[in-house]
Amino acid sequence: MRLAVIAGADPLNVRTWSGTPYFMTKTLQKRFPELLPVRSPRPSWFPHLRRACLKMTGSRLDIYWSYSLASRNAQRLANSLKAERIDVAVCIANCSLSAFLAEQLPTIHVSDATVPLMIDYYAEFARLSKPLAQSALRLDRQSVLRSRASLFSTQWAASSAIRDYGADPSRVHVVPWGANIPAQEVPRHSASAPNDVCHLVFIGVDWERKGGAIAAAAVSRLAAAGLAVKLHIIGANPELLPKTDSIIVHGFINKSTREGRLEFDSIMSQASFLFVPTRQDCSPMVFPEANAYGLPVITTATGGVPDVVCEGVNGHLLPIDATADAYADLIWSIWSDRSRYEQLRKSSRSRYDNVLNWNTWLSAVTPILLEAVGERVPSCS
Q: What residues contact 184, with CB distance under 8 A and at least 6 apart?
């Protein structure tokens, strides 16, 4: 069976969508060696025009959601895939193309959310013009209903597809995503960690959405109490952050380079917790990655997060209105109880080994793909 993998951009570029399409593609190639990665799913001018429109309109005009453009681009892509004798197209977070592609080829819809979940949740959706918001809803619905199967990373997203779109539950699957770490670089696990300093790691480019201010305030509270704690910030470069010995800003680390990977590995290997009190998230990829290092995740019960972080298993979740003091108290209560902490490290790594890895994802996805080829495409208005 010959697969095509279509993402928002080149799926073989590890920088595309935090590396998720890259690791999905590489994993699928183990089972389907003739896989075709579609490196340019849209015309070359499309990303440049999209950026210009977003900038000029304050993100109100996002041509990704243009119904007519999506139809034309999907037809161009369908012709190309038919010429390549593709049996099934795996579309990763690309519903504006798969909405139409699924009419012509067996298609698998892969996503971590639905548009109904996003409209009142993510700011970028709230800024869309009303016609484009309606188009986004229509395209996403069509993609789910026309595809042979929909693979969601969380129950949160899968339940929305069934509830909001009336999707057939037998065609909706929850398949958790893995950690975006090359198999040969998965760290060896240790149940213990250096206990002289509690090293917390915050990872996220969007400082506000990921709850960076709460993380910094919690660490400042612990440090003011005389406790040995440090916060390592990766990705973001927050402004107006007080310069203290307890907060270290590493900035962006390019993990696609050897130097970046070594730096990241060094920080994670000495860490005690991943601490990301996120405000909005669907299926954060840094959480499985932290668990691969045996790091428990301290985060927020929001969006699809509770399906990735199981309370008390691979981390702990606090409600969205939890204060920095509440996070500080939780972290220190775990850290100061060595038996509890080391058990949490063990169960966090087990969650990675048994669930949050790409080989487990492949085992679940393979029979779905094989079954999809022999089915008829359902009709959709």
A: none
